[in-house]
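wait is this the right file?? whatever heres the structure
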């Protein structure tokens, strides 16, 4: 059953064998397999339950429903925009459906550094095979690549850069281009579509408008959780929920999970919880073309440039380039300048192509609770990561010109306009300063990393907390480092992996 806590009263008490906090890819996967194993499982979700019929394709309506802070979440200094999902399905509701496995070489480095006894290579492969079948992952057919993506392919071909088509988890896609504000056609094989029915059929219960506040511990063991009932529109607190349970699996995202553990004063002698945050920060570059691009139409991301991405090496470049585009409100917030300059750029909306360079970052940021309901993110890329972002600016500009752009715009505070005959080499040493150029991040991870040594990591490679009985983590928080690729496959995999371990672990 699915319940809206805002309709249950001002004081709600629940009991469960297992409570799962968060209903994104990790939480839904963990809750489903645990319920199917016989545990009475309850999920608390801070957002709403939305169906395809609720996806209006209007930014001003969907951004507040689908994103934390209505899409306005940033780091404390506002230097990095951090987009995170909210609602039943979490970021699987708004993501662009890209599907990639963590490279084997990176996983090998994890095993060498952190052990991960419960995740040998065969376990990873089996989990990925299962998730790819669950989500019906397939290559995007070339006939469905829109003009925006073929421009990136043309740029790669002209420069001799490595590139190729991408895989996704859509079935029956009509190419509307509105993926970022939720699919009105039910074509995304997201968490609610592929797992929610199984969870409910196994006797699971889902409570929305329920924001987890604090884990309840006794003698370093879980005994329950305290949550707030929140107004689904205003987010104002309406009442309280108390859950009595011997097991909690926290799947509240790499920011929410760490904040909840820290607010609850869960012991962690390693001191790592909340201090190992990676974001995959990205820069964007816009190209203005003579012919219309109409980048908002069709599947948003179907082609990638991997010329400057070497995840097999610890010394190679770390920038991944794909098309990136936004609908009008989102574009207006990203386009630099004011007044006539801003208007002039937006008047070219139909002719713009935008590339983004996302990096496999090594910077370790921090997340901490802010009162009972909020959290604070501190992150700014270090010198090496800023160097990779500058390389990304250079490569994006070069690709756009190679594809035929008549000019390229770097969206710094004072917009920098580049012309086809201009020397692009200075971009390689572009000085990224806070407040001078916006960075965007959509992949928070690694804030509660797994590892076999309890002196160095807070949780095991089964997601079980080293120092608190009955506590598990199942989301992107578990990754020991940045992964350099879209995380959804791996978060589903961790959810299945942890969810199956929970019923087998004695209390």
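ok assuming it is, sequence goes like this
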């Amino acid at each position: 059953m699915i319940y809206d806590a805002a309709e249950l009263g001002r004081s709600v008490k629940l009991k469960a064998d297992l409570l799962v906090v968060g209903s994104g890819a990790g939480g839904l996967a963990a809750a489903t397999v645990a319920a199917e194993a016989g545990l009475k499982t309850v999920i608390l979700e801070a957002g709403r339950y939305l169906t395809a019929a609720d996806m209006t394709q209007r930014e001003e309506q969907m951004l507040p429903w689908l994103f934390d802070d209505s899409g306005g979440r940033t780091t404390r200094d506002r230097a990095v925009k951090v987009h995170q999902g909210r609602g039943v399905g979490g970021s699987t509701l708004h993501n662009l459906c890209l599907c990639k496995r963590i490279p084997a070489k990176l996983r090998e480095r994890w095993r060498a550094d952190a052990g991960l006894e419960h995740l040998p290579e065969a376990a990873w492969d089996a989990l990925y095979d299962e998730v790819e079948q669950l989500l019906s992952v397939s290559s995007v057919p070339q006939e469905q690549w829109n003009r925006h993506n073929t421009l990136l392919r043309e740029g790669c071909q002209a420069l001799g850069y490595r590139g190729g088509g991408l895989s996704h988890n859509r079935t029956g896609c009509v190419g509307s281009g509105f993926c970022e504000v939720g699919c009105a056609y039910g074509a995304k094989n997201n968490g609610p579509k592929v797992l929610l029915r199984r969870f409910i059929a196994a006797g699971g219960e889902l409570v929305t408008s329920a924001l987890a506040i604090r884990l309840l511990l006794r003698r370093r063991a879980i005994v329950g959780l305290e949550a707030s009932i929140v107004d689904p529109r205003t987010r104002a607190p309406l009442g309280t929920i108390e859950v009595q349970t011997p097991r909690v699996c926290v799947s509240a995202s790499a920011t929410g999970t760490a904040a909840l553990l820290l607010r609850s004063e869960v012991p962690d002698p390693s001191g790592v919880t909340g201090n190992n945050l990676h974001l995959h920060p990205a820069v964007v570059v816009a190209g203005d073309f003579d012919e219309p691009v109409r980048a908002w139409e069709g599947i948003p991301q179907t082609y990638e440039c991997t010329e400057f991405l070497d995840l097999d090496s610890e010394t190679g470049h770390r920038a991944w380039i794909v098309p990136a585009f936004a609908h009008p409100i989102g574009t207006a917030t990203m386009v630099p300048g004011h007044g006539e300059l801003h208007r002039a750029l937006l008047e070219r909306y139909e002719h713009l192509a935008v590339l983004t360079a996302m990096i496999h970052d090594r910077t370790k940021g921090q997340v901490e609770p802010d009162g009972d309901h909020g959290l604070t993110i501190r992150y700014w890329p270090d010198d090496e990561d800023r160097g990779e972002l500058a390389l990304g600016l250079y490569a994006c500009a070069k690709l756009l010109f190679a594809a035929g752009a008549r000019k390229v715009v770097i969206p710094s505070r004072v917009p920098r306009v580049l012309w086809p005959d201009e020397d692009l080499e200075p971009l390689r040493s572009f000085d990224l300063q806070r407040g001078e150029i916006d960075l965007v991040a959509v992949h928070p991870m690694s804030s509660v990393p797994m590892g076999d040594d309890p002196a160095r990591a807070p949780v095991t490679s089964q997601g079980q907390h080293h120092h608190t009985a009955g506590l598990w983590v199942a989301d992107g928080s578990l990754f020991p480092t940045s992964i350099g690729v879209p995380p959804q496959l791996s978060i589903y995999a961790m959810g299945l992996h942890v969810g199956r371990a929970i019923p087998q672990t004695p209390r």
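The chain has two domains: 2-68+84-138+184-276+445-504, 139-180+279-441. so i think its the right one actually
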